[in-house]
Amino acid sequence: MSQNSNLFLFVGKQVKDEYGRGVGKIASFALTPSGKFDAVFVELGDGKFLKYSVDNLKFDGADVTLISKIKSQANVFCDQIPLIWRKDQALKELSEKKKISQELYGELHSSFDGALNQLKNEAQILLDEIDREIARCNDEVKDLNYALVHLELEHEIGKIDEQSYQAAFNIIQGNIKRVNTEKSDLELTRNKISNILLGEPSNPSETETKLEKETEESSSVSNASELPEPPVVVYVKEIGRTSA
Questions:
Q1: Which 8-state DSSP code applies to residue 54?
Q2: Within a domain: residue 241?
């Protein structure tokens, strides 16, 4: 995020996540002694406050977007792991060409290897977190589909008027779309990290394009399979009237 001396103008503005869901409103900012914006305080819908790094916020005109922490961490791993790996390979080549001593090679190689293993362990922890988030998305989509089916049932038997039905239908469908988009992003991020851990130092742009295509294809199949079954029409035969 580029520093802006007028960030306090965003106080009171609504913060949304990358999928359009409301997070809360900006209450204030924290600054370093040098005057650099460091963090933002956001009031959530329930009145609680959370503190986010300013680097995780995107300011675009009047819109304020909270960038996924998982994505930010994944980008760090996808940048640093291949970089350290390439440096270690270059170090090995220098050693083979007798341009550095074996003692110096051993010391630097041990340093690179230690840093690489630490990053890989942290990346694996992030993968586990991503798997939990994908499972959460699956549960949310399932619950939303159940809600949609029950809405259709109640509408079919005349317990919900058309206006209320349309409003509820749009809310549910909008949430299904957002959750599926989030799930696709998580799957793409997981694939990128997994490929890095498997040691595939291919062209980053080509890898990302390939993964995005694969994720879009799997997402379209997933979306189709997750749509609710056609609602069951219940016919009610009125036997007699009873007093309220």
A1: G
A2: no
